[in-house]
Amino acid sequence: MTPDYPLLARQLGALLDTRDWLTNSAQTCAFLMQELPELNWAGFYLQRQPELLCLGPFQGKPACHPIPFDKGVCGAAARTRETQRVDDVHAVADHIACDADSRAELVVPIVVEDRLWGVLDLDSPTTGRFSEADRLGIEGLVAVFMERTELA
Ligand code: SME
């Protein structure tokens, strides 16, 4: 069943009561891990150098770092600036396997004034975990994070 994303968006908005990117990104990935079923990883990768994603706040097992823009699902989201929704990462040739249990992945780019700030990456051990409705709902949650946060 699709979660109640409008409710989650209101709850996330209430949770993010600072403008600080570090606090808000830590709170956001903890909130998503808590509220969305069947996730095994939720976190941010930040662009702090050209064409390279650096591991940011996350929930889950220790993860891959750094990720170049030309690698994996996160790299594709950074390069194309479009959400990547993958039903089975084992079918993606250049997927970067941080955890062999991960099957489905959703990566949402975060673009501020035409600059890629980073991406939000969600992983699930369930094949096909993320529907189009989940994509839209999670993009809406990322929009709340962006509205509430000073992303310099
Ligand atoms: N699987 C990702 C790497 C990041 S981890 O899943 C946390 C990818 O292919 O970009």
From TrEMBL:
Cited InterPro entries: GAF (IPR003018), GAF-like_dom_sf (IPR029016), Phosphatase_reg/MetRdx (IPR051330)
Gene Ontology MF term list: kinase activity; L-methionine-(R)-S-oxide reductase activity
Gene3D superfamilies xrefs: 3.30.450.40
Record's keyword annotation contains Kinase: yes
The GAF domain, residue ranges: 32-135
The UniProt record lists the keyword Transport: no
Gene Ontology cellular-component terms listed: cytosol
Keywords, comma-separated and alphabetical: Kinase, Transferase
Assigned protein family: Belongs to the free Met sulfoxide reductase family.
UniProt-recorded name of the protein: Histidine kinase
Organism (species): Halomonas aestuarii
Organism placement in taxonomy: Bacteria, Pseudomonadati, Pseudomonadota, Gammaproteobacteria, Oceanospirillales
